[in-house]
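Can't paste images in this forum, so I'm doing it all in text. The chain is below; anyone willing to post the predicted structure tokens underneath?
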Amino acid sequence: MRKVLIAGASGFIGRALIERLLATYDVEIIALSRNQKISHHPRVIWKRCDLFSLKDIVEASVGCDTAYYLVHSMLPSASLSQGTFYDFDLIMADNMVRAARINSLKHIIYLGGMIPPGVELSWHLKSRLEVETTFRKSEFRTTVLRAGLIIGPEGSSFTILQRLIERLPLMICPDWTKTLSQPVALRDVTTVLSKILNDEKVQGQIYDLGGPQIVTYQDLISKASAQIRKTRTLYTLNIIPLSISRFWVSLITGMPKNLVYPLVLSLKHEMLAQSSHQWPYLPDLQTSLEEALHEALVKHDPSKFIGHIPVQKDVRSIQRLVLPPGRNAEWVANEYFNWLPTFFSTLVKVNVEGLTCTFYLVDPKIKILILRKSLEISTPDRQMLYVVGGLLSAKQDRGRLEFREVLDRRYVMAALHEFRPALPWYIYRYTQALVHIFVMKAFGEHLKWHIISQKKVVA
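Text version of the structure:
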């Protein structure tokens, strides 16, 4: 039986897609989730998978020929997440490509966001484009679907809209609420996702998914209000800046600002399907806006949206560093070991011996952190350094620092994953955690100095 992988299977789109695939094809579905789930269907196997772990994805995707990638990372993935959601997204997408290469997957289907042409994109949309680029520049067949607002129960964007309607009888609307958009029904999105699995004629292309109606966000609010029989009065005030809008939306809806802020900053762009990226089977996208809203509103309790809640005191910290031309991740890891002893030269010092880097406090016997490079797992484009001890480190299961190349070797990501500190949590957050950020920024400046030095030599 054919195996299909779904990354992001526990989300509202993933769950709906599982139902559609089971009803349409005789396939076995490997459904990935951050938390272990119990399967209630013989052809669905739920696997707990941390998408920041290449090892997890490789083990989960064995035997699959197609992967659906429905993942977006705007909510924290650890108790302390240092870095930007777009860097988190980029690492997970890169892991998916590396796992696909190891397990010889044939096809990746990615659901991203609409990309308005000819405008300066928000980081929310830039991130979608970076993930798309990561997949399309790989050696695998990649099909990209770009969608704006997907109308379906428990979707984060739709939950924001629903909570605003429920809680505000009078709305003072900023100018962006007059922006045009083309919402699409969840059922239509899953129809398209399902059809791509077996229809080779549509594979390997980019498609915009938009519903049959073009509306402003004010129109959408009015139509949704009518569905739940609530009268809402809207007034437009053009002088409200986006920075105030996003704070206000987060406050009223109670949704995390990590989620709301990037979404609101993208609303200034028109989200309209482009004729150059038209889905060839137009009847698949004909569910009316009113019908989509009715299905979503009658089935969904907006108070149920929770998002991922980390269950242990762990740390994820990711920084994007410029990779000097002609260098690779292996060189960066070696340069990091060479640079550390010169950077730490007073109270805290560093000793490097072979594959081991030891941070100590004044006396070499007072070891506060120990990193060890793994030659077995490391490759020239991805270097792995494991946290193996020190007074500042609690017992580690998978705590690690990695350097990996991304986006055609333009950048190297310095990523600390699943680190568990020994210090009390509050003290750690305002001491050791800040020092780590400071050190990585300084190392990033060091790499930039290498680029400048190279240019001087060429000149």
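The longest strand covers residues 411-419. The mean pLDDT is 88.
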